[in-house]
Amino acid sequence: MKVRAAVLRESGLPAPYAESRPLELAELELDGPAAGEILVRVHAAGLCHSDLSVIDGSRPRPTPMALGHEAAGEVVECGPGVEALAPGDRVVLRFVPSCGDCGPCRTERPALCEPGAAANTAGTLLCGERRLRDGGGAEVHHHLGVSAFADHVVVSERSAVRIEPELPHELAALFGCAVLTGVGAVVNAAAAKPGDQVAVFGLGGVGLAALLGARVAGASAVIGVDVVPAKLELARELGATEALLAGEDTVAALRELSGGGADVAVETVGSEHVLAQAYAATRRGGTTVTVGLPDPARMLSIPAVSLVAEERTLRGSYLGSSVPARDIPRLVDLHLQGLLPVERLLSHRIAPTELNEGFDRLARGEAVRQAVVFA
Fold first, then answer.
1. Contact of 61 with 141, CB cutoff 8 Å
2. Do 116 and 202 have their domain in common?
3. Domain CATH code at residue 297
4. Which of 60, 40, 51 shows the shortest CA–CA distance to 7?
């Protein structure tokens, strides 16, 4: 079938993207679903820094690539062997497919699925193949097994999680990345406990989701840190007990506010400098979790002795260290109960023709989460 998709043909074009136009809306040929795959009509997709890092070249991926990875829609058709999903099901798409058989999958760490990671790096679906072709018949790569900036996609059934239909599509999309990653960093990776003091560095969609996760976990104090004053105000509205404008004295100010340092610090910026600040802002025995994706060449420097002498923990969290089939429905339920006001994270609804302008807005820090909505 013919689909319209946002295709990145070259990484590293200069901003502003409204002028350089790295994303081109193109008509592509989409093959139907093979065994274990589904055809999904995409209703909404979120704009994320993981997309931006491919556009600006800091996260190299093969091109041409149909971009986008955070999305929600409706199953249109199922390939042979698909049993857990059916046409008409509402689904959230996840950006790491899990094979179910490798070591990480068998130990309930599907975010680390080995075949899934290999497929994502190569720009294929989980099966190792591509279903998109341009007008000349050349293959177009998939972004993180999803390629969500398109009106229809074919994905592995292991890239989709069925949800109940009450949730609007533009909110449902956020549960596939921002909400799952942010809440999961606090609840799964850091295992925050009631009474903990939690600091969140970076208050975009993922950071504010982490803030909401800290409130759900029963944190006694939640301290948000960002360079954008408007985001600090939103953090306060969402339950932050303190909000700090980032600067040279951030660590000292946070340690003073928390009486010696946070129990948990979450870094969402993707900067080794901010990660070092987050680590320095935790107390003895504290836990620092990073979900940001810095340039692979960047190195982190911390006092090595503190890991032992102060029993500090530093760990990464990918996909919120979650089991998406379990956690996405749980998080949706929390939202429907009014405990996760995810609607406050959605700052812009845009048309597919506005994607380049949307990524300018994201790069400038002027948006929390934007969703491109397909008619």
1. yes
2. no
3. 3.40.50.720
4. 51
User: What's the average model confidence in pLDDT over 353-359?
Assistant: 98
Q: Are residues 164 and 41 in the same domain?
A: yes
Q: Does residue 323 form part of some domain?
A: no
Helix (H) or strand (E) holding 92: strand 90-93
How far is it, in rounded angstroms, from Cα 116 to Cα 95? 9
Is residue 375 predicted with pLDDT exceeding 80?
A: no
| Confidence grade of residue 81 (pLDDT, cut at 50, 70, 90) | very high
Domain that holds residue 124: 2-176+341-373
Q: What is the mean pLDDT of residues 304-310?
A: 97
Question: Does 212 share its domain with 148?
Answer: no
CB atoms inside a 10 Å sphere around CB 228: 17
- 117 has a pLDDT exceeding 80: yes
End-to-end distance of the chain based on CA atoms, in angstroms? Answer: 17
Token pair belonging to 27: 């008509």
Q: Is the pLDDT of residue 237 over 80?
A: yes
Parallel, antiparallel, or unpaired: how do β-strands 221-226 and 197-201 relate? parallel
CA dist 187 and 343 (Å) reads 20
Return d(Cα 286, Cα 310) in angstroms, integer.
8
Sheet-wide strand order for 282-290: 242-245, 221-226, 197-201, 262-267, 282-290, 313-316
Domain count, the chain: 2
pLDDT recorded at residue 126: 98
Dihedrals phi, psi of 158, to nearest 5 degrees = -80, 5
Check: CB of residue 119 under 8 Å from CB of residue 128. Answer: yes
What's the pLDDT tens digit per position in 207-225? Answer: 999 999 999 999 999 999 9
Q: How many residues does the structure list for the chain?
A: 375
Q: What CATH number is associated with residue 139? A: 3.90.180.10
Tens digit of each residue's pLDDT (9 = 90 or more) over 328-355? 999 999 999 999 999 999 999 999 999 9
